[in-house]
Design a protein that fits this description.
Shape: globular
CATH architecture of the largest domain: Roll
CATH topology of the largest domain: 3-methyladenine DNA Glycosylase, Chain A
Strand content: 15-25%
Amino acid sequence: MALRLRYTAIVPAILPQSFYERESLEVAVDLLGKLLRHGPVTLRITEVEAYRYPGDTANHCRFGKTARNAPMWGPAGHAYVYLCYGLHQMLNLVTDGDERGAAVLIRACEPVAGLDEVRARRGNKDGPVLLTGPGKVGTALGIDTRFSGRALFVRGGLEVLDAPPVREPLVGPRVGVDYAEPAHRDAPWRLAVADTRWVSQRSSLAPLRGSVADYLAREQLAPLSESARSEDAERSPKRAGATKRAAATKRAATRAVAKPSAAQDAIVDAPAAPSLTRRRSRA
């Protein structure tokens, strides 16, 4: 009698929302080695960047909430996808908590399943060039800005699955954030898997010194600097509009005291401040 063996496929567990409800640098460390899955394509995360709140001057949320960055303000465990240079779909995983404005950018991956689909979407390229860059990851997964705000912990869409952790990551400065203050521009908040070729700009990465716990303790986010606070108040349309309205009302009230008969004509709402152009950034 032939012996029949039954094999049960092990389905990786989907990461729960609570995984993301932590500070973005801590989540970034733990995302290395985890799996991204969308349809037939599964990728292993090999490189990430943390964008932190409230003091990070490279963060998209440094000037406050906008229509573009609204998904980044929470809740945690959702996607934030933005278009860079009109070409690249940049996938970020929202972290921290509601109204915190923090996320982790997925910079590079390596293929686990669906390699033919990845090659087709990436112009039949081969090797690490397929997935070493955040725009390449977005293309390979077949996502766009319509995925912004979607939950990552619900099966059937864009999913993040559990996998063995990476014990000794590489660390280095984030890419393309020269506009940030020097302390944040040079901060080692980019992390990567050491034993893979599927990493971008490897020359600016180095092995982590000490334990991950020591690293996280060293990299406590500095308070928002005085210059950043001033720029934040000036550049945020919401705050700027409120400031101008308050100033106009105060001036009008002063005129009304001097000329009581003109009070009703003097006190008016000042128009909202016009939106100011923001510099480009990588979330």
